[in-house]
């Protein structure tokens, strides 16, 4: 009996220890996830500091800065260097945000949080996944973490405001891709005008399982439907996304470096993306999606 208890205890501890391991999924199939590009000013006080495809954004204010997303764990140095290249101090980053609780957007977040001392704000539905390093992700088996756990300092709900200096960001709860996927809507200014900017987390379908085969996320189909409808109603001038490929970043990059905000006003492409994702969603519902 004592031997059986010892074995059970050993196995329990071993499983717990294994779950503490951070094992970031390989990104070799996506070279643009790690391909560095020079940072640039998108519009007003909004800058791009990510890689060729993993979009990271810096919003600067007189009271400090906001960083949205961090890419893979290996992106830490690249992001920090990009912030410095733009002439800003790392220590002035005060708030950290993400568009979704996946390793390709949170991989370097724990490290950057430690370096900057910034506060992590997150959608309430993604906060548990962010805190446990991806262990409770509905589409994973929970055997190991996919990124280092991050302490969430403030949880956000739909339409909550994030205030820093002169900036006022509205967080929009857009679940489906993850339980707490979210977008951000805010205004920026330059010498010409004021722009309404949307950083959109497009509702791509990540799971290979049928929607009715995910007991840990029973409302996933309903969430996707809600998000697609909600995103079609948004009003904005400029739109960006979690991945550069979603808004044709590389095609716009050379021109964008010369400061050309109107490059990112292609609303037609935004609605085209949503229509394609809605079609993908309907196929998933009917079992026709491969």
Word description of this protein:
The chain has a seven-stranded mixed sheet with strand order 1-2-3-4-5-6-7, with helices on one face. It has eight helices and twelve strands. The chain has helices at residues 2-19, 76-85, 103-106, 109-116, 127-131, 220-232, 249-256, 267-286, and strands at residues 40-43, 46-48, 57-61, 64-68, 93-97, 119-123, 154-156, 161-164, 167-173, 182-189, 194-200, 238-241. By secondary structure, it is α/β, with parallel strands linked by helices. Mean pLDDT is 93; it is low at 4-18.
Q: Low-confidence runs (pLDDT<50, min 5 residues)?
A: 4-18
Number of helices: 8
Q: In which order are the strands of the major sheet placed?
A: 1-2-3-4-5-6-7
**Terminal residue distance:** 51 Å
Query: Beta-sheet strand percentage?
Result: 15-25%
In helices, the fraction of residues equals 25-40%
Radius of gyration: 20 Å
Query: Using DSSP, what is the number of strands?
Result: 12
Largest sheet: 7 strands, mixed
Helix/strand-derived class?
alpha/beta
Could you tell me the mean pLDDT? Answer: 93
One letter per element, helices H and strands E, the order comes to: HEEEEHEHHEHEEEEEHEHH
**Overall morphology:** globular
Topology:
Blueprint lengths: L1 H18 L20 E4 L2 E3 L8 E5 L2 E5 L7 H10 L7 E5 L5 H4 L2 H8 L2 E5 L3 H5 L22 E3 L4 E4 L2 E7 L8 E8 L4 E7 L19 H13 L5 E4 L7 H8 L10 H20 L4
Parallel strand pairs: 4-5, 5-6, 6-7, 11-12
Antiparallel strand pairs: 1-2, 2-3, 3-4, 8-9, 9-10, 10-11
